Structures are given as C-alpha cells and as structure tokens.
Amino acid sequence: MNDLQNKQKEISELCGFHSDLVSLALGASAETGELCDYIAKYTKHKIPKPGDDMSNLREKISLECADVLVYLLQIANNLEFDLEEVYLKKTETLLKRHATTSSRI
Length: 105
Description:
- This protein is mainly alpha-helical.
- Helices cover about 70% and strands about 0% of the residues.
- It is built from four helices and no strands.
- It has helices at about 1-15, 20-40, 55-80, 85-100.
- α1 packs across α3 (about 55-80).
- The longest helix is centred in the middle third of the chain and has 23 residues, at about 55-80.
- The radius of gyration is 17 Å and the shape is flat.
C-alpha cells in the first residue's frame, strides 16, 4: 500500500491535485455514493432509470472502487499516515473481536 500511496502522491503532484481535507472527504463520499448506486443496481435492489446503461456493471463497480481508493490514498497522504499500517492494525482488532476460536489464524 505504501507503493500506492507514493504513486498517488506522484500523480497528485503531476496533475496538480492539491485538495484540502474537506474536499477530499466530500469527494470520497460522492464516489462511495456512486459505488453504492451501481451495487444496488447490480444486485437488483434498485430499479434502473430509463436510459441507464446497465451493461458492464461489474466494470463500473470496479472503477468506482478505484475512485474511492484514490481519495483514501489522498487523505492518508494529506494527513501523513501509512494506510497499510493502519489497515493491518485494524484487521488485527477485527480478528480479535470477531473471529471464532476455531477459525483464528
């Protein structure tokens, strides 16, 4: 994930992406909303609007996941924390809290 954070930092500098933290949070929220909308359509929990292009929904979902990741990487870079390190700590906490005795790694 460090490689991804460094790559995103490089891309942000090359493209002039210097958003403030609030703008990044709002962008992440908007992209998450788009992701949820596509998932709802994919799982038939939401009826598509007339004219919605329903082909390639899996691809659209994957691209929205990437958009969300871009914002998360930018937030981590903005606040100068290692997203991979935080993720690994969080998974340890989740395993301790939720894993059954027989399924613990």
